[in-house]
Amino acid sequence: MLVAILAASGALAAGGALETPNMLTGMGDVRLKGRLGECLDTMIARHVIGTDVDYVTAPFLEKTETKRWWQTEFWGKWMHAAMPYLAYTKSETLKASVERGIDRILSSQEKSGYIGNYPDELRCGEGWDVWGMKYTMMGLMHYYDGERGTGNGERALAAARRLCDYVIAELGPNGRRGRELWQTGNWSGFASSSILEPVMWLHRRTGDKKYLDFATYLVKGMTEPEGGPRLVDLALKGISVADRNGYGNKPETHGGYVMKHNRRKAYEMMSCYQGLLEYYEVTGRKDLLEAAVKTGEDIAKEEINLAGGCASSEIWFHGARKQHLPYIHLQETCVTTTWMRFCEKLLELTDDPKWADELEKTFCNVYLAAMKPDGSEFAAYTPLSGNRYHGHHHCYMHANCCSSNGPRGFLCYLKKFFRVKDDVPAFNFYSSALVEGRLSNGRKVAFDMYSLYPRENMVRIVSHTEGVGVLPLKVRIPAWSAKTVVKVAGKTLEGAKAGSYFTIRRDWQLGDVVEILFDMPVVAHVSNHHVAFTRGPVLLARDSRFDDGDMMEPFRRGLKDGQVLPSFAAVRTPGDEIWMAFTATLPIGSHTENPEARLPTTVSFCDYASAGNEWRRDNYYRTWFPIEYGPNE
Q: How far apart are the first and last CA of the chain?
């Protein structure tokens, strides 16, 4: 399995060179239409363009940090979204905000190279200073990618170099602080160690071996010390992410929530694997890719729920088997976004469609559920049953990490929607969209997709491609679609298999039509005397707006895990705020001694992303429903 992954990834041997990447490449190649296009446009307008850049850059100018908070992450996260969305929209308003933010950030840089808001005595210590510098480097390099060849772009890259040089001088080998970088911050060094990702970006953009050497030092700290992050050996031993506490730590130092050696913090752990994968791309260290893949597979199996979300109070907890229970602080949006980024990177390196399956499930459910319908903010936590609501304020600011992180998640979906790799165009996701790409010979390929997916199971793709000769086109067949029909020019093609890519090879002409019909029944998921329902990638929910009875009333016994339920029927939605709606006649109710109560009950469901999206306390919803016990159970 790993041999195939390594072959697909195209990683080079140590010392090899890779093409200098640009994180904004292809941002105009996919133009989403329909409901998802409107959702994206609204989010960019209300959230990204609507961000007050003076407010998120003020901490760098004021330098008043005393409590070890993370005020300096907000600008970098914003830039991580602002620059790609600037390339997507060409918004002059966003461009002006980006330029003002860059000017303010660069003006705050000290002679030492430091950019942040901590006093010297607290820098590079137990707080979030290194974490903030990570996001600042990411923001500067996103700006550089958009302004390459200009004086402004070179100025931003130079600032990123000086900032990284500062970190090396303070926390590198023989650094001034007298401690290793992984020993700073909490979470067993996860937060600080995740700076590896932008360090590798810097190496790829400058070619300076100094930054690769520093990255090697960081990887050593992330993988070798007994009490450190242990991101490789624990993964290769098959230790689940929720069980990695205590390995190599003294008993009194690995308990609690924000303890020095707690290795269960989801967001920061996955951020570290992002960096390890960047390092793997340059060095070819196979154990790093294998550890990341095994970790991703463990998360998908042990932590990801039917909504594609994970984590309680931001930590791993074997959540997949507990998702029917009302755990506290479920599905932090920072975790959701970082899981999507992790899946995006694994898909890029392995070409394994299971990572597209995972990304799609998360995007269609918990990600869209966390986004306020007007696009202006993201919820901090998104429970499987309950209410949607505003996030909390962080660091004495009207901001929080989750709402700041939210726009980055949509990028994962957008960037992997359609791509051309090794002269093979491929669709990973389905929505109305116009897409295009370039072959290695410079010729253009383009397609027009129409679909109401996942509300409906039909996808129609029209070729805008001609004159390129025989060309394979890959389309992803989701793992949940047992019987998929693919037609070209009305003729059914054989061989479409669930959980794989299906290749259509032809001499494409203008107007050629591909039609895909997915197998999308409603399926019951039974666990611990509870039941939930999915249709394709979408988790279904009951919502108080349907006003159709007690949502806690139990189901009668008899439902089986994996059972297909033909009684579900798509119906007209009650309003535009609900994406999709269904009715079903089901065995609900426990008073079966009454003739009337023995009859089934017809109730309504909607997609999980729409459930509770009025963000009001009186708009509540449920996804998991109790099943009655028998006397001997």
A: 41
CB 302 within 8 A of CB 242: yes
Are 463 and 510 within 8 A, CB to CB? Answer: yes
Beta strands in 305-443, from DSSP E residues, in sequence order: 418-421, 424-427, 433-438
The residue whose two tokens read 């308990």 is 255
SS3 sequence, 66-77?
Answer: CCCCCHHHHHHH
Going from the C-alpha of 132 to that of each of 115, 116, 164, the distances in angstroms are 9, 7, 12
> What are the tens digits of pLDDT across the range 337-383?
999 999 999 999 999 999 999 999 999 999 999 999 999 999 999 99
CB atoms within 10 A of CB 441: 8
Q: Kindly report, residue by residue over 220-276, the tens digit of the pLDDT.
A: 999 999 888 999 999 999 999 999 987 665 543 433 434 556 899 999 999 999 999
Q: Residue 409, exposed/middle/buried by CB under 10 A (0-12, 13-18, 19+)?
A: buried
| Domain ranges across the chain | 2-18+32-421, 424-517, 522-626
Short-list 446, 449, 450, CA closest to 437: 446
* Topology of the domain comprising 424-517: Immunoglobulin-like (2.60.40)
Judged by phi (left if over 0) then psi (alpha if -120 to 50, else beta), residue 90 lies in left
Sign of the Cα pseudo-torsion (128, 130, 131, 135, in order): positive
CA distances to 67, 218, 339, 627 from 363, rounded to whole Å, are 35, 32, 10, 29
Structure tokens at 277: 């994968």
Contact by Cβ (8 Å): 367, 296:
no
User: Do residues 471 and 507 touch, judged by C-beta distance below 8 A?
Assistant: yes
Token output for 555: 């189901």
Amino acid, res. 342: F
For 385, the 3-state DSSP assignment is: coil
CATH topology of 2-18+32-421 equal to that of 424-517?
no
CATH number of 2-18+32-421: 1.50.10.10
Q: Decide: pTM greater than 0.85.
A: yes
| Phi, psi (rounded to 5 degrees) for 251 | -55, -35
Query: Taking a C-beta distance cutoff of 8 angstroms, is the pair 152, 142 a contact?
Result: no
Q: Do residues 435 and 416 lie in contact, with contact meaning Cβ atoms separated by under 8 Å?
A: no
Ranges assigned E (strand) in 18-57: 30-32
